[in-house]
Amino acid sequence: MNPTLDPNPLAPYLPLAIALLLAGVLSLIIVKLAAALGPKRPSSIKSAPFEAGSESSGPARQRFAVKFYVVALLFIVFDVEAVFLYPWAVNFQALGWFGYVEMLVFAATLVVGLIYIWKKGALEWEH
Amino acid sequence: MKRTLTMLFWFGVMFAHFVGIMALAYALGGLVEGVLPGGSRLTNLAILMVAVVMGIASLLTVAERKWSSLMQNRIGPNRARINLPILKDSALVGIPHFLADGMKMLFKEDFLPATANKLLYNLGPMLAFAPVFALYAVVPSGPTVQVFGHTVDMVVATPDFGLLYVFAIASLAVYGTSLAGWSSNNKFALLGGVRAASQMISYEVALGLSLVGLMMAFSTVQLPAFVGNVTNELGLGNAATGQARYLWEGKIGGFDIGLPAWGFLLQPLGFFLFFAAAFAETKRAPFDTPEGESEIIGYFVEYSGMKFGLFMISEFVEIVVLSGLIVVLFFGGYHLPFGGEWLSNLALMREHGWLYGTILGTVFWAKVMFFVWLQLAIRWTFPRFRYDQIQSLGWKILLPIGLFNVFATGALVLWDPSLRALAVFGLLQIGLLIALTTSSALKSEEGHGGHGHGHDAHGHDAHGHGLPAHGHAAHADTHSGAHSGAAAASH
């Protein structure tokens, strides 16, 4: 596919590492530059949390709706399902109908789970 | 008429830039490759990621406000000037605004909320921006050609795991939003951060499933393999692969024409799932409940100056990267829909690889700009979803459709490995979609007939029809441009 590939197996990852490093460094520079260039005139009013103009009441580290936790739990289940699908999908044509049926069974068990949480009301946000 | 000419002029300027940049990228890559083997990857990094993607993203801050003003029949940003005698005090259709915004944000006070967690507060914008920026490293933007006797390819990195890198790094951006929301120690920021995190992980499931069908059809996760090569590209004697392949091919003289195996034709359902899910990941309208301009306080309410700017620019970088991914995965990458084989086998192209690369690279960026425009148009056309609608769209509609798509695609690929059955199924889906879309358009057309001609100058009047009919009197409200975008209005 790619004639420039070095025989060294790590070679394709070096530009990727540089790109990730550049992304980190660039965002660090921007944040530091913003801190260095702007004026600094702090006041107690300015540094108070801005909560729609009314006075802030207590810290923000409070409880929030359990629905968000439920979504996070469901995400784990179905994202892991998607992760299992990738290696299967890449080797799909080699695995043939046998692999297809195997994965269909696996997905069907998760679909049963989806129907269950749906009927349980875990996906309802109105109440 | 004047507006059309102005737009055509700026389209020309845009394409001239793409041609110039791609020619420069190939020439520089060829030169550097002679000095340092593998060094073209670094010039690609500098040109593609830093110059082009960041350049488009920063220009998009203006383009977004300009498009919104066109669609709402306003003038939009037109105040910033560059004081050079050659420009004759021209507003340059508002383009200098991105410079003014950038300067303003850099020199704004960068305050720290008294009760915020300093480390996490500073980490928030960095983690929102860095992963999105790094995503573009795996997107191939032009063909592999010979320049000055050296092989130059137009991609920063070609790891084996291609798409998995995209999924892995893109999902890191959720840390930026949730850390920003939590560390600000502001109740509204916390709620916004939680909403953002919940929305992003919900749509990640659909995003992951949407591309499985494509992986099955092409048996790969590598982005250059999705794009593929045309037959006998530049005399290398290879067979056509990936999306450069034709499903049905005919020849007119030496000119090849046919139905290319583009991802969109094989996987229209996968495309719409991917587009919807990725659109939700960018947190832009109609999915902008994590932070909705002036209406919904979001996770970065406590951020000022350039730290806020990082959140905003990462949204625009995400638009460009998403468009690039859509083009690479679903719209043939840098390939032409037909005539690719003919073009690559011209004696001129074989002799001058850089010319071939420049042409196809420009084709790639033209496609990318179309999807960038599409995202801007959607952002200013659709009303915002409610939060429960967003969640049920992700879980109750996109997830089941995604699963159905995986197994329907699987059966068709196994039944007919030449992918023709899949393409027929895909064309049926597209036909059904067109039928559904036009039939609903017929029903709603009675409400607003006969005010179409005023919008012709916009070049895409289909979206203009949704506006109220009083839009003909142009509101010369020059200040509204400053309010329309997130950049000028916030903080």
From TrEMBL, chain A:
<comment type="subunit">
    <text>NDH-1 is composed of 14 different subunits. Subunits NuoA, H, J, K, L, M, N constitute the membrane sector of the complex.</text>
</comment>
<dbReference type="GO" id="GO:0005886">
    <property type="term" value="C:plasma membrane"/>
</dbReference>
<keyword id="KW-0830">Ubiquinone</keyword>
<dbReference type="GO" id="GO:0050136">
    <property type="term" value="F:NADH dehydrogenase (quinone) (non-electrogenic) activity"/>
</dbReference>
<keyword id="KW-0874">Quinone</keyword>
<comment type="function">
    <text>NDH-1 shuttles electrons from NADH, via FMN and iron-sulfur (Fe-S) centers, to quinones in the respiratory chain. The immediate electron acceptor for the enzyme in this species is believed to be ubiquinone. Couples the redox reaction to proton translocation (for every two electrons transferred, four hydrogen ions are translocated across the cytoplasmic membrane), and thus conserves the redox energy in a proton gradient.</text>
</comment>
<comment type="similarity">
    <text>Belongs to the complex I subunit 3 family.</text>
</comment>
<keyword id="KW-0520">NAD</keyword>
<dbReference type="InterPro" id="IPR038430">
    <property type="entry name" value="NDAH_ubi_oxred_su3_sf"/>
</dbReference>
<keyword id="KW-1278">Translocase</keyword>
<keyword id="KW-1133">Transmembrane helix</keyword>
<feature type="transmembrane region" description="Helical">
    <location>
        <begin position="95"/>
        <end position="118"/>
    </location>
</feature>
<feature type="transmembrane region" description="Helical">
    <location>
        <begin position="68"/>
        <end position="89"/>
    </location>
</feature>
<feature type="transmembrane region" description="Helical">
    <location>
        <begin position="12"/>
        <end position="37"/>
    </location>
</feature>
<keyword id="KW-0472">Membrane</keyword>
<dbReference type="InterPro" id="IPR023043">
    <property type="entry name" value="NAD(P)H_OxRDtase_bac/plastid"/>
</dbReference>
<dbReference type="InterPro" id="IPR000440">
    <property type="entry name" value="NADH_UbQ/plastoQ_OxRdtase_su3"/>
</dbReference>
<protein>
    <recommendedName>
        <fullName>NADH-quinone oxidoreductase subunit A</fullName>
        <ecNumber>7.1.1.-</ecNumber>
    </recommendedName>
</protein>
<keyword id="KW-0813">Transport</keyword>
<dbReference type="GO" id="GO:0048038">
    <property type="term" value="F:quinone binding"/>
</dbReference>
<keyword id="KW-1003">Cell membrane</keyword>
<dbReference type="GO" id="GO:0030964">
    <property type="term" value="C:NADH dehydrogenase complex"/>
</dbReference>
TrEMBL record, chain B:
<dbReference type="InterPro" id="IPR001694">
    <property type="entry name" value="NADH_UbQ_OxRdtase_su1/FPO"/>
</dbReference>
<protein>
    <recommendedName>
        <fullName>NADH-quinone oxidoreductase subunit H</fullName>
        <ecNumber>7.1.1.-</ecNumber>
    </recommendedName>
</protein>
<dbReference type="GO" id="GO:0003954">
    <property type="term" value="F:NADH dehydrogenase activity"/>
</dbReference>
<feature type="transmembrane region" description="Helical">
    <location>
        <begin position="421"/>
        <end position="442"/>
    </location>
</feature>
<dbReference type="GO" id="GO:0009060">
    <property type="term" value="P:aerobic respiration"/>
</dbReference>
<keyword id="KW-0874">Quinone</keyword>
<dbReference type="Pfam" id="PF00146">
    <property type="entry name" value="NADHdh"/>
</dbReference>
<comment type="subunit">
    <text>NDH-1 is composed of 14 different subunits. Subunits NuoA, H, J, K, L, M, N constitute the membrane sector of the complex.</text>
</comment>
<dbReference type="GO" id="GO:0016655">
    <property type="term" value="F:oxidoreductase activity, acting on NAD(P)H, quinone or similar compound as acceptor"/>
</dbReference>
<feature type="transmembrane region" description="Helical">
    <location>
        <begin position="41"/>
        <end position="63"/>
    </location>
</feature>
<feature type="compositionally biased region" description="Basic and acidic residues">
    <location>
        <begin position="445"/>
        <end position="464"/>
    </location>
</feature>
<feature type="transmembrane region" description="Helical">
    <location>
        <begin position="162"/>
        <end position="182"/>
    </location>
</feature>
<feature type="region of interest" description="Disordered">
    <location>
        <begin position="445"/>
        <end position="491"/>
    </location>
</feature>
<keyword id="KW-0520">NAD</keyword>
<feature type="transmembrane region" description="Helical">
    <location>
        <begin position="203"/>
        <end position="227"/>
    </location>
</feature>
<dbReference type="GO" id="GO:0048038">
    <property type="term" value="F:quinone binding"/>
</dbReference>
<keyword id="KW-0472">Membrane</keyword>
<feature type="compositionally biased region" description="Low complexity">
    <location>
        <begin position="481"/>
        <end position="491"/>
    </location>
</feature>
<comment type="function">
    <text>NDH-1 shuttles electrons from NADH, via FMN and iron-sulfur (Fe-S) centers, to quinones in the respiratory chain. The immediate electron acceptor for the enzyme in this species is believed to be ubiquinone. Couples the redox reaction to proton translocation (for every two electrons transferred, four hydrogen ions are translocated across the cytoplasmic membrane), and thus conserves the redox energy in a proton gradient. This subunit may bind ubiquinone.</text>
</comment>
<feature type="transmembrane region" description="Helical">
    <location>
        <begin position="397"/>
        <end position="415"/>
    </location>
</feature>
<keyword id="KW-1003">Cell membrane</keyword>
<feature type="transmembrane region" description="Helical">
    <location>
        <begin position="261"/>
        <end position="280"/>
    </location>
</feature>
